[in-house]
Amino acid sequence: MSIALVHFPVLDGKRAEVTTTVTNLDVHDLARSARTFGCASYFIVHPVEAQRTLVGRIQEHWTTGSSAQRIPTRKVALALVRVVPSLEAMVASFGGRDEVELWATAARASREPLDFASARALLATPGKPVVVLFGTGWGLAPQVIDGVDALLPAIERAPGVGEGDAYNHLSVRAACAITLDRLLGG
Predict the structure, then answer these.
(1) How many domains does the chain have?
(2) Domain range for residue 94?
(3) What is the CATH number of the domain that holds 7?
(4) What is the reported pTM?
(5) pLDDT digits (tens, 9 = 90+) for 110-122
């Protein structure tokens, strides 16, 4: 299983389609989560060349630069990063759409999600590689959600917290770690 952090097409707070910027924390923390849970790759999907170059510089610093020797565990995690310009390019790296399963997380599910127990069972069965897509900003654009093979359940706030309001907005780093634990954790 692999993960992908998608920066386009994603939504902003007004539900407009936008491109978000890369953050250093997302590069590091999702790589560390991917390594902790045994993911094969961590794709960072960004259409802007300057942003992809930035990720490459961060990755190089930690995998071959001075920090590679200073913090070798970070080197191992950052080695999982694969920077691609689009979801189509990511899919092509698997040999095409018929060769990979795309799953996604979405706070606003447009269809019945695949529960985590069933998802774990599918991951334990030999088959196509699975990539779980995580959206930045306010989540993946509707056309991305509509094109995935399965939706995973949203990460919900604890019962009784924030009664009367609709607050349920985790960072993508937290949502990814929780999702990976539910899919692959012990």
Answers:
(1) 1
(2) 2-184
(3) 3.40.1280.10
(4) 0.94
(5) 789 999 999 999 9
